[in-house]
Amino acid sequence: MSDRDLDRLLVERVQRGDKQAFGLLVSKYQRKLARLLSRMIWNAADVEDVVQESFIRAYRALPNFRNDSAFYTWLYRIGVNSAKDWLVSNRARISATSAVDIEDVENYEIGEHHRDNDTPEEVLMSKQIAATVNAAVADLPEDMRMAVSLREIDGLSYEEIAEAMNTPVGTVRSRIFRAREAIALKLRPLVNANAEKRW
Amino acid sequence: MIQILTLIAAVLVHSLALAADSVPNRANADNGIALLQRVAQTAMSLSYSGVFVYRSGEREETSRIAHSVADGRELERIEVLDGSAREVIRDGKEVKCYLPNENRVIIERQASVQPTVRGFPALVPAGLAGLEQNYAVRVGGIARVADTACQSLVLEPRDALRYGHQLWIEPNSGLLLKAGLVNKQGQVLESFTFTQVSIGSTFARQQLIPSAESQLGRVQKIQSSEPRAGEMKWTIENLPAGFRVSKVMMRRAVNTSNTPNTPSMPSAQDVVHIVISDGLAAVSVFIEAAAANKPSEAIQPSGAMSFYSRQIGDHRAIVMGEVPLVTVKLIGDAIERR
Amino acid sequence: MKNSLSALLDAEHSVSELDDVCMALSDAEVRRDWADYLLIGEALRAEMKLGFDISAKVMAALENEPTVLAPRAVSATPSAPQTRWFRQVSALAASLAGVMLVAWVTLTFSANEIISPSSQTAAAPTIQPATQLASATSDKLPDHLQDYLVAHQAHTSVGALAGGSRNVRAVSATRGAP
Questions:
Q1: ipTM at complex level
Q2: Which of A177, A178, A186, A188 would you mutate first to test chain C, the one with the most C CBs within 10 A?
Q3: Quick one: CATH architecture of B2-62+127-192?
Q4: For residues B318 and C145, is the Cβ–Cβ distance under 8 A?
């Protein structure tokens, strides 16, 4: 099963009335969407509003979602449209603060032109999370570190990792899980500060 | 009593929470299905009697029940012990409801109707697989009900179109001793609990004759039968996920009177009765001729039943079932003239 | 559960694990683990905006949204041939549905909710949040509905039950009759 298949299954659940399953998709794509939209919208608080608006629009439109396209492609399009709408209705403000050409927004590439428009608190939080995770990974036993890196950084499937590490798939699965749990243990005190933001 | 029921409700919710915590596996679900299979298999053949408490929303009632199988025919008698005297008697395919307060008796006679009907685009109800598509089945712990150790079983709905079921089953006989319908907030909408039960006792048909029968003025007899070719003028496509048409009947009412003072009512027009099920929950659709164009309405009383009615031209569809309001509404809105 | 979550995140889960996870989403710990594991992945990929989390806000906002349902979008799985087992299941359905035929003798509605049909025109059926429901205009089930209720109980409990008392709802509902 691919990641896309998983999204399709989650979407089907939501279409059958399981609202909670939508939460899995929100958690999964909120930051991706926020990173995309922060190339279009300068202010971090506005990005937050538009991301939220995008998810709500997506939820309402879900009955019309056809499973022949990938969920995130569809979601991103909704996100971009929401951002355009926002830019239009805030044009006066925007023209004073930014030179974004509304027609060009879709041509922005991830990773390019990133403007550091986050608040200092957000930047700090981001850095702390990254530092904590990296430190926790460094502390992991070699086999667990390797497995989780191959998965998360290199994007290999369990089967490919099993082949690379010459272990059964079940072992890969359990190593990745144990690695995540070990990292999460160290991460939790830090993100607990954020707990009320979390679903 | 209320305290006890509150406790039961708390236990119900708690067991649901426990069930959600555990990681059910395939084997667990299979055991659950096997247990359900046993329940269904033994139900027809089992004789028992006892007292149970039925609770729906805020209301509760205690009733006495006796169920017996004689000559391959099911006999059942339920007497309500609280409030006004009411009685339900099932004799084979006939169900009689005695309502002394309303001075009437309703007799429902079920004709043998094939689950799939010719000429109607009936969707064959799903079997085992269908049940699991709609509910996650898991075996819970052992609990005492009516002084009997019972196996608990949780059927959790996979979507918002149906309620969850919690069952407590006496494992030797397969008799259901306690059952609850639970909404997604974990509230018990309706429950049914034996407070005492004795399995294996039989009784004779003669014992089924209620004392009140001859005194009730209005007798409403309803005979259901399979629709004749071309008689069925309605279709229901696009049912909510997991639901299928399982039966289609024509109802013909014959109102008679036991006493000269109560005039016989003219025979009402035929009503279509369609039964729709997802393997556990059942919804009935009644379609009657109705000139008055009343607005559609949906009603959810405090218990588990939901009602929805909708005018379609010169007919009115009435949908009811032990499902969330949205489900009766979706079903009602899916009815079309063919 | 944690193990299943981890596999689900990588789309390496088994069929039942998806269900298990979705069933368990009412558990805050399950949701927390899902969020933690996702965050770890993004941190390892050196993504930005790691402190960004509006999932609580979004889900709270969705509370007030009508539940979307797209029954037509869900592919109708070909129905299995009708087996003896099916008959047992429907017998079971009957029994459970009718577990309580005694309940019927007068549905006294308390706090009824009436949905206006004008809201049904949307392409996708929706459930109106309770707050949008008009208050009840009727508080008693009309007579013939009561008869239908008896029929519903009688006919959905065809065959078998486990646990008797199929007729409970029917009787109980008429309790308050004058």
A1: 0.87
A2: A177
A3: Clam (2.50)
A4: yes
